[in-house]
Design brief:
Elements (H helix, E strand, L loop, with lengths): L24 H16 L5 E3 L9 E6 L2 E14 L2 E6 L6 E7 L2 E7 L5 E7 H14 L10 H15 L9 E3 L3
Parallel strand pairs: 5-8
Antiparallel strand pairs: 1-2, 2-3, 3-6, 4-5, 6-7
Length: about 180
């Protein structure tokens, strides 16, 4: 069953998710439902549980036809910098340049409860950081300077306005 993806303004997106203490059938069903939701979205490659209203520390991703899950993830190391266009299923149509570390080491649990570590760079490193932000009640706007945030919020308002004519997503080059 696919869930509706929560969008900006929904208070669930600004709340810290709780760690998962037991990996059971409920978590397995949640994972299946998260993948169903991801596959019905436009252009998404990752989805955090809070984006469907579930306040649990888990996210999924699918890249190159490989489905992956991580439970209670954390970034334990990071280095470098990368400025890159970032989008979000909870901010449909908005893309903005966000500065994040280029390389990360993420640690968490797999579906069997085993501790795993994943090194990632570029797109995958960004994906991990973005989804972990969701688990901590953060959105892209929280990574912007006040001026960038004002500009991005104004653009998002134009995108979501009922009076705005449909148009292709706009990529902001924030100063």
């Amino acid at each position: 069953m696919a869930y509706e993806i929560r969008t900006f303004g929904d208070p669930v997106l600004k709340t810290n998710a709780a760690p998962i203490t037991e990996i059971d059938g409920k978590i397995a069903r949640l994972i299946d439902e998260m993948f169903d939701t991801l596959y019905t979205s436009d252009n998404g490659i990752g989805l955090a549980a809070p984006q469907i209203g579930v306040q649990k520390q888990i996210f999924i991703w699918e890249v190159d036809d490989e489905e992956m899950v991580i439970i209670n993830p954390e970034i334990v190391e990071s280095s470098g910098e990368l400025l890159f266009d970032e989008g979000c299923l909870s901010l449909p149509g908005l893309y903005a340049e966000i500065l994040r570390p280029k390389d990360v080491l993420m640690r968490g649990l797999d579906i069997d409860g085993n501790v795993i570590e994943i090194e990632a760079t570029d797109l995958m490193g960004r994906l991990f950081q973005h989804e972990i932000d969701h688990l901590h009640g953060m959105l892209m706007f929280d990574r912007m300077s006040p001026d960038q945030r004002r500009e991005a919020l104004a653009e998002y308002g134009r995108i979501t306005s009922n009076q705005a004519a449909p148009r292709a997503p706009r990529r902001l080059k924030l100063k």
